[in-house]
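Bug report (template v2)

What were you trying to do?
Predict the complex of my protein with protoporphyrin IX containing FE.

What happened?
Run completed; filing so the output is reviewed.

Input:
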Amino acid sequence: MTVLNSKINIVKKPPTRGLSILIQRYQAIFQLWDLLEAEYQKYGDIYIDSFGDITQVLLSNPQAIEQVFTADPNLFAIGKFNRVLEPLLGEYSLIMLDGVEHQKQRKLLMPPFHGERMKAYGQIIIDVTERAIGQWQVGKPFQLREYAAEISLQVIVKAVFGINKTEQYQELIHLLSSCLDIFNSPLKSTLLMFTWLQKDLGSWSPWGQFIRKKKRIEEILSEAIAARRDNSQLLGEDILSLMLSVRDENGAAMTDSEIKDELMTMLFAGHETTANSLAWAFYWIYSHREVRQKLLDELNDINDNTDPNMIAKLPYLSAVVAETLRISPTVVGTFVRQLKQPMELMGYKFAAGTIFSPCIYLVHQREDIYPEPKKFKPERFLKPDPLDENLITFDRPFSAYEYLPFGGGNRRCLGYAFALFEMKLVLGTILARSELTLLDRKPLKPMRRGVTFSPSGGVKMALNKLNLEKK
Ligand code: HEM
């Protein structure tokens, strides 16, 4: 790193040695949010953490993040750092790709998760949610996260395979959820973080179980691909059909391995993240009576609280979702960006090989951007209408470098619009149809589940009453 013309001082974290290495590893697995905050206090919003011959620059400074997100994407290699997810997603996953290949796949996979194609899933999301509510019994406690996971999995499977084809994928749904459950605790998450733990010691060992389940998932995906290749009448508007029909500039189709890995990526990336974010939203809403009441009033005021498009436009509900993703980002940092050639950032020149790590959690905790950052205040995301002071309209007053739950630049989450739409519909439906009580009395801490974070204990709730009348 060379100083060119910088006005800021970038601090180098002292090298960690001996026992401190173990302590830090422990914290990174069990208390990552606390560790990040402590380092921010000590070293500031841009600091260098070197280990071996790797130089990592942790960024929670919006200006620096802007420079990274708006730089030429060809400056960075990202895919190879995501290799930790290769056992789960496969080598052809969008997440492992860089450059032209990445751009091409993104363009192909984007449309089903946006605009009208996405809106076609509105009624499905509401139906799936109502089915989940139907399983609750008055007085019998349950973990909200389990149901959020079931809902988000059913929804993403429908997006991938087609709205009416879920019945034949029940085994896949079961396998996917039990496969991800293998990493459901901080300790088991280490299986994904350290490749030397990835040993198949038989069907009873965690990695052995994972390998066997993953193999069966791949068989089911291969069968689904073969069935549609053989019978074009099975093709529809879903993501699998789209991948089967696409051709590149030379007329070549995607191979089965490419399709399999991309399907796995959509199923994985679209499921855990949305389920955890929903679990956080329920925790915050049900621990703030006034927030819940405002949401109920807003839902009561619309003509039809079963109309997906009306629910998705509600300003206070949108603000509650935005604030949940700010205060409890299930993904703590964006993918890391490694420099392929030297680059200037904030007046310093960084050598090729340097890794930039934008930290979502720390940016969202900045007091200068979000006063009282530990408080859940959806109003941050609301703006009074200048023409009518009683009317509040939704607006996002923060820049894309101050508010980044979905990352940014050319790697910005492919499913962000879909995730926001789904979260609002699930929350709106559950709030309108049921009266719930949060049973957890103590504040819930973030708990690692693989590469994401969800509320510890899964948000325990009890059903008081069902409101089945629709407006
Ligand atoms: C609340 C839910 C979600 C959150 C918080 C979330 C968050 C993120 C983040 C932080 C990234 C990394 C972006 C970067 O490095 O700049 C990402 C990437 C990605 N997300 Fe999401 N995500 C969510 C839901 C979804 C859904 C529903 C899908 C469905 C397709 C999805 C698919 C992806 C994919 C494919 C990528 C990789 C994009 C690329 O490499 O070009 N995500 N997401």
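What did the reviewer find?
DSSP finds 19 helices and 16 strands in the chain. The pocket of protoporphyrin IX containing FE is lined by residues 94-95, 106, 113, 265-266, 269-270, 273-274, 277, 330-331, 334-335, 405-409, 411-415, 418-419 (CB under 6 Å).
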